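Session log. Operator J.P. requested a structure for one protein chain; no other inputs attached. Running the standard single-chain path with token output.
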Amino acid sequence: MSASDLTLAGETPDVAPQRRPSRLDGRGTALAAGLIFVTLALLPLLATAIDDQFLLVTATRIMIFALAALSLDLILGYGALVSFGHAAFIGLGAYSVAILAAHGIDDILVQAAVAILVCSLFAFVTGAISLRTKGVYFIMITLAFGQMAYFFMVSLSAYGGDDGITLAARSTLFGAPVLKGNLTFFYVVLAALALAFVALRAVVGSRFGRVLRGTRDNRVRMQAIGFAPFPYQLTAYVIAGAIAGLAGVFLANQAEFVSPAYMSWQRSGELIVMVVLGGMGTLVGPIAGAVAFLLLEDWLAQISEHWKLGLGIFLVLLVLFTRGGIAGFVSRIAGRGTS
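Structure written below.
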């Protein structure tokens, strides 16, 4: 963390450990994100040119998980909080859509508002408890809360239980089926991803974000200069849960099906892999990580039924030989090009 990052309300610049800034910080992040979003925005033209509408479906699914990975990066990359229960927020968001639709409420604005509220409350309660622990204990307690939510949904036989529940149709907007078409739905998800990126970039660049990063780097020193880490970490946890819940709303609409499997600990592990693969603490990294992970998963699944073995080997090699994930690799290449 640079000295300017820790000039917070009168504290001296040398109160926190110095970190060499990444070339993907600031302008580099904006350029990388701009390239990704422009490419995604033009993707429907490619799908039309090659007459492959499934490309839109795949890209939409990738963006939904990129949104969830982006939310996780706020607490994992900037707060050093390893949560193995993050997928619970996706499941809660998805079930908000399914349960409301089962009772005749199919407006996506209402469903999204309820999903965000439910996920925020769940994050506030579980976060207030989990954040009183640290290290492996935090990992285990988030895993426990995630599994509690998973088995609670399994027990809801009125909404499909372990078999899940099928939606009659996608959500509406003021009664109009505007999300029925894959193209419109694609751009709605893209807009949500872009807005979440811009919002989180503002958050991590603010005073709040600097305190969060300072806590990640040296909790004791941040306490010594007068900042209590708990409220900042809890706020970040709630924000991350709310955004992941929105991803769940989109996931339910794309699949038109909701299952407790959305909130399993394996799904949480996949989100962590996406963040690590793309590069923690970069914002643009989780988006790139989601793209790489899901495309690699799809490609390996076409080659062999034992694709998970290949994926595991690839990830091990990535961790061993690539520091900082995809974002770190691009940063080093950019550094060589400008040196």
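Operator note: The two ends are 22 Å apart (CA to CA).
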